[in-house]
Design a protein that fits this description.
Length: 292
């Protein structure tokens, strides 16, 4: 019997240039969506799928990620004093998560970041979660991908149909539908122009990968943008094994982009029972103002 997947890699060493100057000295991953930093949504998603061994690939100016998932004795003492039990429980929940940190050193691309996790992952299959793609907790994308992996024993990439005007922001696949939402991938291109895109199916930030990707990443040369691209490494993997895509049609927020970040903030605020009491009427008032 094969063991279930337990490990999830979170690349978090990027410079977050789309959010400058906010990200000059603090990590993009720590920007809050309502009251949780972006990365916490991804970590909670991993835990809900029993991916209990987490590695975060960090870099310069990323120390606050480690502090966030660590004990804060002063804060706990203060909350105890003021009788804020619920907040203490919420904060303590984070401390119990088993997280390892690996520094990327140089931000040489997603493929390079994943390769840095090799000593932690060794010879097991693993998940990759790009935390700026936020998937709401009621969705089952990662669970479905893990179930598909169990059946296929092949790398699985999360796919979403995107409009051709957005396609240049993604890795894009060429594939054949096997059944339902499952596609056998024939080719992948990192961030093609609309005219060179092999389809409208983009790779989004959830992957199930097998450890043979490390042998390819070890020898990988920089690709698009001078970075070692995970997409290129997966294309090389196609020579030796099948790779599948799982077409997702649920909700996703690209919170690495300002507009996506705002959409996530608004939707999560509306789902927050306390906040929505005041936020919903406020939004209606704003809409009214725009309608004139
Ligand atoms: C990365 C990958 C790209 C993928 C995207 C999903 O790009 O390189 O293939 O489509 O994540 O979010 P990035 O957004 O880091 O530029």
């Amino acid at each position: 019997m094969t063991k279930g997947i337990k490990k999830a890699i979170f690349p978090a060493a990027g410079l977050g240039t789309r959010f400058l100057p906010a990200t000059k000295a603090s990590p993009k991953e720590m920007m809050p969506i309502v009251d949780k930093p972006m990365i916490q949504y991804g970590v909670e998603e991993a835990l809900s799928c029993h991916l209990n061994e987490i590695v975060i690939i960090t870099g310069k100016h990323k120390r606050s990620i480690e502090d966030h998932f660590d004990y804060s004795y002063e804060l706990e003492a203060q909350l105890k004093k003021s009788g804020k039990k619920q907040l203490i429980n919420e904060i303590n929940r984070l401390n119990r998560i088993n997280i390892a940190y690996i520094r990327q050193g140089y931000a040489l691309g997603l493929g390079h970041a994943i390769f840095r996790a090799k000593p932690f992952v060794k010879d097991e299959p693993f998940a990759v979660i790009l935390s700026d793609d936020i998937i709401p907790p009621e969705e089952t994308l990662l669970k479905d991908m893990l179930a598909l992996y169990k059946e296929m024993k092949c790398p699985i990439l999360a796919l979403e149909k995107v409009s051709m005007s957005e396609i240049h922001r993604y890795g894009v696949i060429d594939g054949v539908k096997e059944h339902d939402k499952v596609f056998r991938i024939n080719n992948l291109i990192e961030k093609p122009d609309a005219k060179n895109a092999p389809s409208d199916m983009a790779i989004i930030g959830r992957y199930i990968l097998t450890p043979d990707i490390f042998d390819i990443l070890e020898k990988a040369r920089p690709g698009r943008g001078g970075e070692v691209q995970l997409t290129d490494a997966i294309r090389s993997l196609l020579k030796t094994r099948q790779v599948y895509g799982f077409l997702y049609s649920g909700k996703r927020y690209d919170a690495g982009d300002k507009f996506g970040y705002l959409k996530a903030t608004v939707d999560f605020a509306l789902k927050n029972p306390e906040l929505s009491k005041v936020f919903r009427p406020y939004l209606l008032e704003v809409v009214k103002r725009f309608r004139g």
